[in-house]
Amino acid sequence: MTAVTSRFEFYTVAYLTRICNQKASTLAQLVTGLDECSDASIFHHTFQTLGSHHFLTEGFSNDFAQWVLAAANRTELAEQLAALDVRDYVSLAELRSDLRRLVADYCAAHPLYAEQQALEDFNFCESVDVTMSLGMQAATLEEFRAVLEKLSHSSFYFHFITSRLRLHLQTNDFSHWFSEMLGRERLASNVNRIDIYTNTLDGARTKLLRLVDRELSRQ
Amino acid sequence: MSETILTDRIPLDEYAGLLGAAEIGELRALSRPLVGREVCMVNTTAVGGGVAEILNRLVPLMEELDIRIRWEVMKGGEDFFEVTKAFHNALHGVAYNPRKADFGIFLDYNARNRAHLDLGAEFTVIHDPQPMALIEARPAGKAHWVWRCHIDLSRPNEDVWNFLSPIAGRFDASIFSSPEFARQLPIPQYLFYPSIDPLSEKNRDLDAAYIQQVLAQYKIDPDRRILTQISRFDRLKDPVGVIRAYRIVKRYFDCQLVLAGGGAADDPEGRVVLQNVRREADGDPDIHVLELPAWSPLEVNALQRASTVVIQKSLREGFGLTVAEALWKKKPVVASAVGGIPIQVIHKHTGLLAHSVEGTAYQIRYLLSHPDIAARLGEQGHQHVRANFLITQNLRRYLTLFLLLDSHS
Question: Which B residues 234-263 touch A at CB under 8 Å?
């Protein structure tokens, strides 16, 4: 979805993972990789991987944090990386900068760990996507609810999470539409607060449906 | 379609019960621009082996989406398959000194097959190295050719890879099962995980009565904990290491061990491994060493479902889809961090990884001590397989790849 129109148009996205010819086997190499990899790679290892692991609600945040924990065995840094919330970012450049800063600062403070070989390599990959309309639209909150109930994970994730990078706003497509087209600011704000790190995608959708139901019952 | 018999056609809508109608609806939406377009899959065998198993499922699903898909099987003589078997092993890192004539045999059979196979489709997917040189038949125009490499190329024999890599470079794209398995190539390399079919005999739900019957058949006590490793009797699956881990666990928990697999009947090395396993078991009545026939999907399914913990203590591994099979059945898994296993077992999220006999035993003990954590890992493992390793995901990836290739032309 490139622009909000009066009707909400539902899209979906299909991702493929492209393997890059870039690896890191130490934290120092991870810093270099974070400098040199593509934006599509930053997206893949953060936004996309969160979507493909949507069923995990405890401790999984992004591939970098998981690798630092499981392969490099540096818990403190892993926690710092995992604490980055993709919803705080409206550009991949900002996210890359924070990832890089955390790893580089850790390496500077712990030079011995910076060069220690991890159990496995970190393989940089990137996401390529195909986006398409599902041919479903909603003009009212009732119509929106009816489609939302049967939306796929990919479509939900596309509108709820990755929308930030498209809109360059700290919001999601749903909240943006509620606010801009339906004038329902409170609903927009409550929906934007749903925590996707402690809820599965199905759990987040259930919360969203509940918020919509509450809004409808007030009419 | 040449000599391919598609068995067990399962309509796409039957997957909706497991995955939801929305996921199946998306596959239909993705396939819409591909309706009526021609796809050709090429491999070297219509039956037996993982690739044929996948194509047997994938081809009917694409047909159902109104894609004009054909499955061509390349023919070869004994000399061809001897050479390609040697290539296959060499690409896995086994020592091999190829003769110039070997390369000639490879190219000659590919040339002969180019003469009679129908290779004019808009999208052609060549599976594994054997039919790679069919790329010479690529028609001019907007045909897209993809090389799907199912094997691990991380440590290939240089002579063989130096021969094959220029051929690989002529494709539009390549597909590997893990980033670890890929090589540096001048073409895009995509990651497609291998997949299991949740509705196949090996993975579909079973009646409890049938599971009990299988346990009774093999004299396994259904009322005591069961640790299971399903794998060929192959040194690289480390069945002896599994017995040693079991013996450590047994000091703390009453349990049985099931080592079930084939590969010993027609494989001299397998027979030696089986002898070693029996020697290590030393007559322990709680160790069940089961030689299953080569194709025993229902028995494997039942044994996995009856297990308390599933083990995959491989020393080296390709992708290790038996792990996905166990996770799909919501079983807690303890596995070695080798090959494609860490992609399936995300440590402490979808299972537990180990690096030694002692580590394997410790992780099993941990799961037996914490059944609630074991259940959570099993549930999350099931969701991981659902999101990433099912045949429907494989279908989705192919549809996406064809759409991408089409958009670039």
Answer: none
CA distance A129 to B338: 29
Q: Is the dihedral of CA B37, B43, B47, B48 positive or negative?
A: negative
Find out if CATH 3.40.50.2000 is the number for domain B12-195+390-408: yes
Angle between helices B78-91 and B158-168 (to 10 degrees): 100
Give the one of A53, A152, A200 whose C-beta lies nearest to B23's C-beta: A152
A102 shares a domain with A160: no
**B348 contacts A53? CB cut-off 8 A:** no
Model ipTM? 0.88
On chain B, the residues whose CB falls within 8 A of the CB of A60 are 346, 349
Angle between helix A92-109 and helix A63-70 axes, rounded to 10 deg:
20
Indicate whether A1 belongs to any domain. Answer: no
List B68's β-bridge partners, or say none: B38
CATH among 3.30.360.10, 3.40.1080.10, 3.40.50.2000, 3.40.50.970 for B208-388: 3.40.50.2000
**B179 contacts A19? CB cut-off 8 A:** yes
Instruction: Say whether residue B103 is in contact with chain A using an 8 A CB cutoff.
Output: no
pLDDT in tens, B160-179: 999 999 999 999 999 999 99
CB contact under 8 A, B347 and A70: yes
* B38/chain A closest Cα distance in angstroms: 20
Which residues of chain B lie closer than 8 angstroms to A155, CB-CB? 22, 26
Instruction: Tell if the CB–CB gap between B353 and A134 is shorter than 8 Å.
Output: no
Asked whether the beta carbons of residue A15 and residue B400 sit closer than 8 angstroms, the reply is: yes
Listed by start position, the domains of chain B span 12-195+390-408, 208-388
pLDDT digits (tens, 9 = 90+) for A171-197: 899 999 999 999 999 999 999 999 888
Residues A32-74 pLDDT 10s: 999 999 999 999 999 888 877 777 766 678 999 999 998 899 9
Do residues B364 and B319 touch, judged by C-beta distance below 8 A? no
Burial B121-132 (b: 16+ CB within 10 A, else e): bbbbbbbbbbbb
Q: Which residues of A touch B346 (CB under 8 A)?
A: 53, 56, 60, 66, 70
Match 């291998």 to its residue by tokens.
B194
Q: Is A88 helix (H, G, I), strand (E, B) or coil?
A: helix
pLDDT tens digits, B349-371: 999 999 999 999 999 999 999 99
Chain B residues in contact with A52 (beta carbon < 8 A)? 387-388
Nearest Cα of chain B lies from the Cα of A123 at a distance, in angstroms, of 6
The alpha carbon of residue A108 and the mean position of all alpha carbons in its chain are separated, in whole angstroms, by: 28
Q: Is B26 in CB contact (< 8 Å) with chain A?
A: yes
Helix or strand run (H / E) with residue A211: helix A201-217
Task: Inspect the interface and report whether the beta carbons of B387 and A154 lie closer than 8 Å.
Answer: no
Percentage of residues of chain A with pLDDT beyond 70: 96
The residue assigned the tokens 């991702």 is A15
CB contact under 8 A, A16 and B400: yes
- Quote the pTM value: 0.89
Nearest CA in chain A to B350: A56
